[in-house]
Amino acid sequence: RGATFLGAYAAKSVPVDVAMGKIDSLDINWGEATVLLWYRLLNCGFRLPASAGTDCFLNRIQSRLPGSDRAYVKINNGFSYDEWIRNLKAGRSFVTGGPLLEFTVDGKFLGENVQMSAPGSVAVRASATWRSPLDRVELVYNGAIVATGQVSSDRLTASFDQNVKIDRSGWLCFRAYAQDRTLAHTSPIYITVAGKPPASEKDAQYFLQWIDRLEAKLNERSRIPSPALRAHVESQLSAAREVYRKIAASDSVNGN
C-alpha cells in the first residue's frame, strides 16, 4: 500500500504515465514500496530502467545526504550528457547507495534481451563490491527472489555464478544489500520465451484498481479547473485502463 497514492508525496499518476509511454526510467531508491511498485510495472511488460536521486530536503524532512544515491550508466562512445541519457533509456544502468555491481545473463548486459525458444536455463554471472560489509546478494526473477550469491569471508565482495531455470518471459535483476541497509540494484535483463511477451494479469488488475481509486479521488477533490482539462484527464485514465486490460488479457491468452 505504501507505493500507492495514500500519502502527500506518493506517485499518484505513475501507472497512467507509464501506460502512456511518458516515463523513460524510474527512481527506485525510495524504499521497498517503490521497488515493489517497479517490479509490478516490469511484470506488466514495461521496460523501465532503474535510476536514482537523493532529491534532498534537509530543511523539511529527515533525508539522506545529497549524492548518497546514485545511478551508474555504461557508456561506450565517450562521455557526454546525450550518451548518458541515451544509455540510461536503453537500461544500461544500476543504482546504488554504495555497492558496485556487475551482471550478465547468457552474456547479455543490462537492458538487453535474452531470446529462448522454450523454457530452460540461463547462465547468470554477477558480483558486488563495497568498502563496507555486505549482507547479502540476490537474484530477482519477475519480482521473486530465486537465488542468492556467495559473500566473501571479509564481506567486502560477493559473487553469483549459477544456472537459473526460466519458465516464462519476463526479467532478471541482481541486487545487493550492505549491512548498513544500503541497497544496490541493477536495471533488468529481459527474457523472451517462445516469442511470448511478458504479461501479468495479477499486476495489471492491481493497476486497474489503482486507476479506479485515483479517479475517485480526483472526483472527490473536484479541482480540475475546466471542462476541457477534465475531458483530457478522463481520456488519459481511459487509455491507461485499456493498456492494462490488454496486458491482463494477454497473460490469460498466452498462458504465461
Q: State the shape.
A: globular
- Rounded mean pLDDT score: 90
| Total count of strands | 14
Distance between the termini: 26 Å
What is the element string, with H for helices and E for strands? HEHEEHEEEEEEEEEEEHH
What is Rg? 19 Å
Query: How much strand content do the residues show?
Result: 25-35%
Tell me the helix content.
25-40%
Structural class: alpha+beta
Q: How many strands, which pairing sense, and closed or not: the largest β-sheet?
A: 8 strands, mixed
Spans of at least 5 consecutive residues whose pLDDT stays below 50 are none
The count of helical stretches stands at: 5
Report on the architecture of this protein.
The protein has 256 residues and is of the alpha+beta class. 30% of the residues lie in helices and 29% in strands. The chain has five helices and 14 strands. Strands 3, 4, 6, 8, 9, 12, 13 and 14 form an eight-stranded mixed sheet that branches. Strands 5-7-11-10 form a four-stranded antiparallel sheet, with no helix packed on it. Helix 4 (201-221) runs antiparallel to helix 5 (227-254). The longest helix is centred in the C-terminal third of the chain and has 28 residues, at 227-254. The mean pLDDT is 90.
Describe the structure in brief.
It is built from five helices and 14 strands. It has helices at residues 14-19, 32-43, 81-89, 201-221, 227-254, and strands spanning 26-27, 50-51, 70-73, 93-96, 100-105, 113-116, 120-129, 134-141, 144-148, 150-151, 157-166, 170-178, 183-186, 189-193.
